[in-house]
Amino acid sequence: xxxxxAYKVMESIMTANAVVRARIDGHIKEEASAVLxxxxxxxxxAFRLLLTRVAxxxxxxxxxxxxxxxxxxxxxxARRGKLRSFKSIDSLMDDLNAGD
Length: 100
Prior knowledge:
With 100 residues, the protein is mostly helical. 59% of the residues lie in helices and 0% in strands. It has a domain at 3-57. The chain has helices at residues 3-14, 26-38, 43-57, 69-79, 89-96. The longest helix is centred in the middle third of the chain and has 15 residues, at 43-57. It comes from Legionella antarctica.
């Protein structure tokens, strides 16, 4: 982290007076909290870092991954338990290559 970013983060921590709330799956929050704790950060620290970068760079500090329609449909099917299974790698590969 560069000096300017670190300085801005510390400046915003010292003058923090706005509250940001977000709804997120509890399991994801627990996992993220554990990862952040291993870095010496809290979830609030991570949000401050993220929002400080967004404000200073006028962009997200990462490329968001947006699934296409085919992927969205596959995700919905998986949530409904409609997963396909294969008896071997060869049969999986045959199915994957069927449209080629």
